[in-house]
Amino acid sequence: MPKVLFIGDIVGRPGREFVIKTLPELRSKLGLDLIIANAENSAGLAGITATIANDLAQASVDGITLGDHVWDQRGFSEDIKKLDFVCRPANLPRICPGHDHLILKCKNFRVAVFTLLGRTFMKLKAECPFLTADHMIEKIGNNADAIIVEIHAEATSEKVALGRYLDGRVAMVVGTHTHIPTADGCILPHGTAYLTDAGMTGPYDSVLGTDVQTIIDQFLDGMPRRYTVAKNDIRLCGCIVNINEKTNLASNFETVCIRDEHACKVEETKEV
Ligand SMILES: [Fe+2]
Ligand SMILES: [Fe+2]
């Protein structure tokens, strides 16, 4: 029964160094078959570079997804073409470079992964996530046994609605982007594991990964500022889904939060 870890948005050097330090041991300790990570904030707070993507792959990340910060690092729109373990959101305009999904293999089981950007309160131009999900499921067809969908969105209603829309058709719908883990993890009535937000992997002594005072000051006077990544209370947050090989749906689902001071000790695992 394939066991897949999904890691929420990796933020800056603290987030990626913690992932690199923790993951190889965590993989064997938890018996993980596949590891997927959203790394849209892994370069500072904005975007990713080819070097960082390769470093994460070396640390046993099998597939990397991205979000609205996909193009923030200069040159990445060229580099992404050479990274076969990285996909950009599937509902970006079709002419955008990069894979729109990944197919990851563990033994003889194939798991497809794709990300959809929400359209409510989001700036990046994107096609309808619901219709794109239909299109992607049809496009993937028999090339994968099970499908994991990431909904990278601001509005909880859009995320919940997409989870319900895809219930019974994919193994998991997991939300990212808001950087705050939610407590609504469940297996929906037709067998799809669902979580509104996996939370971020980075410094929680922060405002969504950014230095606290900078954000408070900006709320007070509205003036532009340079953002810096916070440093303390590093956590790896995400979820683990076990996929039933007969139904290709979720058979078990849990959320995970691992704190830096107890590296590799699963501090809080909530089974649902
Ligand atoms: Fe985002
Ligand atoms: Fe993010």
Characterise this structure.
The longest helix has 19 residues, at 12-30. Strands 1, 2, 3, 4, 11, 12, 13 and 14 form an 8-stranded mixed sheet that branches. This protein has a 6-stranded mixed sheet with strand order 5-6-7-8-10-9, covered by helices on one side. Helix 5 links the parallel strand 7 (146-152) and strand 8 (172-176). The chain contains 6 helices and 14 strands. The protein has one domain (3-268): Purple Acid Phosphatase, chain A, domain 2 (4-Layer Sandwich). With 272 residues, the protein is of the alpha/beta class. 24% of the residues lie in helices and 26% in strands. One fe (ii) ion is lined by residues 40, 67-69, 152, 177. The site of one fe (ii) ion has 6 residues, from loops.
Index terms:
8-stranded mixed sheet; 14 strands; 272 residues; Purple Acid Phosphatase, chain A, domain 2; 26% strand; 6 helices; single chain; alpha/beta; 6-stranded mixed sheet; binds fe (ii) ion
